[in-house]
Amino acid sequence: MKKEIMQGNAAIARGAWEAGVKVAAAYPGTPSSEILKDIADNYPEIYAEWSPNEMVAMQVASGAALAGARSMVSMKHVGMNVAADSFMTLSYTGIKGGMVIIVADDPNVHSSQNEQDSRNWARFGKAPMLEPADAQECKDFVKIAFDISEKFDTPIFVRTETRVAHADSPVSLEDRKESKIALGLDPKEAAKYVMVPANVRVRRKVVEEKMKKLEEYAETFKYNVVEMNDTSVGVIASSAAYLYTKEVFPEWSYLKLGMVWPLPKKMIADFAKKVKKLVIVEELDPFFETEIKAMGIKIWHGKDVIPNMYELSPEIVEAALKGKKYKAPKVKVKPEDLPRRPPNLCAGCSHRPLFYALKKLGAFVFGDIGCYTLAFAPPLQALHTTICMGSGGGMAHGAMKALGKEGLGKVCAVLGDSTFLHSGLSPLMNTVYNKGNSTTIVLDNRITGMTGHQEHPGSGFTVRQEPTNMVDYAEIGKALGVKSIRNIDPYNMKETTEVLKEEMAKDEPSLILCKDSPCMLLRRAKPLERFKNPVYAINTDNCRGCKMCLEINCPAISWREGAGQTKDGHKRKGTVYINPDQCVGCEVCVQICKYDAIEPGKK
Amino acid sequence: MKDNGKVTNIFLSGVGGQGTILASNILAEIFLKAGYDVKKAEVHGMAQRGGDVTTHFRFGKKVYSSLIKYGDVDFLLSFEELEALRYINWVKPEGKILINKQEIFPPAVSLGNMAYPKDTEKTFKKYFKNNIWMIDGQGIAKKLGNAQAANVVLVGAFSNFFPTFKDEQWLDAIKGLLAPKLHDLNIKAFFAGKKAM
Hints:
By secondary structure, chain A is an alpha/beta fold. In chain A, helix 2 links the parallel strand 2 (23-26) and strand 3. Chain B is an alpha/beta fold. The longest helix of chain B is centred in the first third of the chain and has 14 residues, at 20-33. The radius of gyration of chain B is 16 Å and the shape is globular. Chains A and B meet through strand 8, helix 11, helix 14 and strand 20 of A and helix 1, strand 2, helix 2, helix 3 and helix 4 of B.
């Protein structure tokens, strides 16, 4: 069998292909984004799409499943919040072709707005959930998930997390097997799928029966594995938490859960009896612990020592379980003494001048999820909320209703193009309908930026790079009833500032669209061609060291200490330096400099 | 090669955009083909935007955790000096360290609020004696015609720690991961790096 080193997400894509999946849908979100891209790039037998949001992706997958196809939907943990309404009734209706929901958690919030534990969805939504630990298991679990889904007529979760989704390990490759279920829709099955109360009550019972059968199945599920060793301590764990614990305590006995819902209660009780002391090691919530304690089983250690927040690691597990006996390595340099290196907007990014203008206007900016969230960081500090996809528009409207006319000129909402299409339309519609007056700014950079360039309905391309319809944001605004729609070129800072000032002061809803401002990393949009000069440099004859240009936090610009004076005799403590390897010539700093100290330079 | 029962831990650190992921992919190919179990963990997403990036790379007969235990690093391969210092506590007392001589200023330094740490080499020498090497990966790559090949220059230097592998094995891995038009440059980069240490 051929073995390849694969990322967990690539192994999930491979598993879907080998399982005979026909339809895959997703909305990008770290750490899940690579799954759909990998499918689109490598497996032409699967129809793949970026849906505008996770709820639509969930609907696409469930529709395909209802038509008999094996289907998969993938998203990050918070994507399930958006998809939940479409999901919660699916366990009642069941599916026909197998349907797998991949949900990727982000313990330690490497790139998210919260740390919710997706295992709760399985219990809440009454659906089974598997949890792989490495890439091989990612592939194997996705395949067996389809069998379980069809056997029990249920959608099924496969939950990953950053250290599974973004960890690479060897995977054995197998061939694709087509599903045996015939494609087709049958109107006679409507009672199973029309969830009106009379039908719901029938299906409600089916759900409970299904979960009971799944609980029995869990007892024999081949990826719930007991490893008996030294019986003084027995560990119950799943996924990466199992690997970390096994790494530091290889001598103990283990019950590794591959299926985390429903739990194999008999197997757990049996394992607990065989070991002297029981330990439960799990990341985030005390999910197993609550269930196992409810079974009346005594545990030695669980969340009393294992942290219930951030991610675990071998040393965290070791320190938690060894207590005072744990010896930490010697600290040679205190990390807190070193300058941090947070992510930053790229040199030349069109978000930078826009946020600088908003800062100068003293606006309170209701933000959203995307690269532009980075504008919250010092020294820019020009974004003041980030809650969830699409939240800024609704919140700005609410704030304006609370503030009344006092708020005019001081408040706006910003969101990206992909975010606007994901869930920004309804808030804008609401602002118009309810006679609001807030300003919504769409930072259109022609792509889903932060997650690594995924197409969306406004980018003009499908996931497989086929040209397609491009949403016209101004037409949407018009159709929703916005009368004041303005285009701005964020790189023209004077004009941008004027438009922002005018629109925020208006006692009516406005929509501002950033035009011709593609992402700096989006090669096909040729973002650098719009700049007159490829690079700028400091004229030290003129630089007074006023540090104004440092306020935009451009990665190309840095401070150079050193007392001196300008050519015309102004004393200074240092000058600014522009790194020619990083500068792209966006001219934002040129517009800020009051002393003509920034001039075209040479690459 | 190392004792079969033991897992070897390689920690890579750098700044988003420096090509640490390609370097770790080359390592993964080499050790997988040599018959080892391999695990590698890195964070994608937000960290790509100029933030610090790390890769945990482990190989051995059987590897469980993808994350290296704090303090258990056998080899630290850093693409940037500050990002080497940030992980100095992770390295075992007998660990070996290879650092790219490059300073990339983080915002606090660019703004003049903090100083860029001085004497990276001295600090490492204090604790690791002669087990630290520093090479000018970017300078070497620039001379070859493209600063972007600095990551493969570093891989070339790093290959000296594993003398049982033949050059062809490294080159096969590099060629397998890069587009054909980049092969010549990166083969040169590999050998230049190997010689630089």
